């Protein structure tokens, strides 16, 4: 059955392209946060272990929400590591940095994801896609708030 939600196919595809980048950033940040949750050490262990758990759970749910929005626009969502690696702007961490570097990397990751959300918001607004704009505004706020909270640990 053809989709008829009031947004032209080319506009839906353009917005989905931005959402795919946001999904890749979200998933990459989820993976990094989960790894840091497992591997954090030091005097801040308990508080960071719990904070990272809260954050990776939120990111996991966010990834699902973004992917489902892509599907709502009748576009297939990326779902492989190779696709995410090509789309994401978040650098992979294959080592185990100290807790301060973990926090630094997560601040940077949330700031990158916020910038991606901001670009996606512009695309959604340009296409008249209020549903995506609403969802992405929430993602933008979540990334900005998380970056602030993490950054506060370093001052």
From TrEMBL:
<protein>
    <submittedName>
        <fullName>DpsA protein</fullName>
    </submittedName>
</protein>
<dbReference type="GO" id="GO:0008199">
    <property type="term" value="F:ferric iron binding"/>
</dbReference>
<dbReference type="InterPro" id="IPR009078">
    <property type="entry name" value="Ferritin-like_SF"/>
</dbReference>
<dbReference type="InterPro" id="IPR002177">
    <property type="entry name" value="DPS_DNA-bd"/>
</dbReference>
<dbReference type="Pfam" id="PF00210">
    <property type="entry name" value="Ferritin"/>
</dbReference>
<dbReference type="InterPro" id="IPR023188">
    <property type="entry name" value="DPS_DNA-bd_CS"/>
</dbReference>
<dbReference type="InterPro" id="IPR008331">
    <property type="entry name" value="Ferritin_DPS_dom"/>
</dbReference>
<feature type="domain" description="Ferritin/DPS">
    <location>
        <begin position="17"/>
        <end position="154"/>
    </location>
</feature>
<comment type="similarity">
    <text>Belongs to the Dps family.</text>
</comment>
<dbReference type="GO" id="GO:0016722">
    <property type="term" value="F:oxidoreductase activity, acting on metal ions"/>
</dbReference>
<dbReference type="InterPro" id="IPR012347">
    <property type="entry name" value="Ferritin-like"/>
</dbReference>
